[in-house]
Amino acid sequence: MAYRLTEARLQKDGEQRERILQLALARVAEGGFAALTMQGLAEEAGIATGSLYRYFRGKGELAAEVFARASQREVDALALVLRGAGAPAERLTQGLLQFARRAWDSRRLAFALIAEPVEPEVDEQRLLYREAYAELFVELLEDGTRQGHFRPGPPSLVAACVVGAIAESLVGPLSPPARAARDAGHPSLSLEQVSQALVQFCLRAVGAPLPEDER
Amino acid sequence: MAYRLTEARLQKDGEQRERILQLALARVAEGGFAALTMQGLAEEAGIATGSLYRYFRGKGELAAEVFARASQREVDALALVLRGAGAPAERLTQGLLQFARRAWDSRRLAFALIAEPVEPEVDEQRLLYREAYAELFVELLEDGTRQGHFRPGPPSLVAACVVGAIAESLVGPLSPPARAARDAGHPSLSLEQVSQALVQFCLRAVGAPLPEDER
C-alpha cells in the first residue's frame, strides 16, 4: 500500500512539474525570459514560491528547461523538412523558409531563444542546440555533395556557418527595437525580404549557384 | 587645496580602476569568464573584496566591461582591414583571415568573447558588438556592390549573416572539447582549413564568385 502511494505521488509530482513547465513556456512566449520570475510563476501556478523550488532548483534550471523544450520543437520541425523529399537545394530552401516563418509567427519567443540576454544555463543550452541544428545541416550538405548539387567546404564548418547566418539574420528583425519600430508603423524588412535574402545567402554559400548568378 | 586633493583622488581612483580592469582582462584571456571571480581578482589586485565593489558594482558589470574592452580591440583591428586599400573581395578575404588568426592566437579569450555561457550583462554586450561588426560589413558590402564586385541581398541582413557565420564557424574549433581533443593529439581542423572554408563561404554568399565556381 505504501508502495502504491509513492507511485501515485511521483506521478502527481510529474504532472505538476509538467504543468509548471507549460505555464513557464507560455510566459516566455509572451514576454521573453525577462517575464519568467519564480514568484510570478508560483502565483500563476497557485503554489508557494518555496514549493516551486521542489520542482526546479532555480530560475536558471527552469529557464534552461523551457529553452530546451521550445528549441527541440524547432529542431524537430526543421528535421522533417531537411530530411524530407526533394532535391537538396529545395530542402535547404524550404527549411530556411519554414524556420524564418515559424520565428516570425512567434517573434517574442524566437528572440528569447536566439539572442535574449539571459542566465548562463540558457547560454549552455544555446550551444548544445546550435550543434543539433548544425548536425541536420551536415547531413543535408553531405547528401547534396554526393548528388553533385552542393560544393561546400568541410561540412561541419559550413553547417556551423549556416546556423550562425540563420540566427544572426533573425536577431535584428526580431529584436525589441525592430518590433517597436514596426509597431510604430516605421518601415522594416518583411518576412519575405528576410527569407529571400537568407535563402540566397545560404544557397550561394554552399555552392549551389542560383539562376540569377548564371552568366 | 581641498579641490586639488579631490582631483588627485579621482585620478588615483581612475588608475586603480584601470589596473583592476587589466588584471581582469588577463584572467579572462587565461581562463575565460569562469576564471573571473571578484574574490580572486581582489586578492590579485591586493585590495579587499569589498573595495573592489567601489570600482565595479558586481561581476556582471566587470565582465561586461572586460568584454567591451577586448571586443573593441577586435572591431578596430577588423575596421583597419575592411576599410583599407584593395578590391572589396580582397578586403573581405583579408578581414576574415585576420579575424580567424587573431582568434586562433588567443583561443581561450576568443571563445570567451564569442560563446562562453556567462552573465546576461555580457550577452547584452555581445548583441551590441555584433551590430558593430555588422556595420563594418555593411560599409564593405555597399562599397563592393557600387564597384560591381558583390551582388548581395539587403546589406544589413547579409552583413548580419556574415557576422553570424564567422562567429559560429569559430565556436566549434575554439570550444573546450575541441581544445582538449587537440591537446590530446586528436585530429581537428587547422586554422588554414577553417579560414579557407570561411572565406569561400562568405565570398560566395555575397555574390563574389570564386575562381573554382566559374564553369
UniProtKB/TrEMBL annotation, chains A, B:
Protein's name according to its UniProt entry: Putative transcriptional regulator
PROSITE patterns given in the database record: HTH_TETR_1, HTH_TETR_2
A Pfam short name: TetR_C_24
PANTHER family associated with the record: HTH-TYPE TRANSCRIPTIONAL REGULATOR PKSA, HTH-TYPE TRANSCRIPTIONAL REGULATOR RUTR
UniProt xrefs under SUPFAM superfamilies: Homeodomain-like, Tetracyclin repressor-like, C-terminal domain
Occurrences of domain HTH tetR-type (ranges): 14-74
UniProt-listed Gene3D superfamilies: Homeodomain-like, Tetracycline Repressor, domain 2
Organism in which the protein naturally occurs: Pseudomonas knackmussii (strain DSM 6978 / CCUG 54928 / LMG 23759 / B13)
DNA-binding region boundaries: 37-56
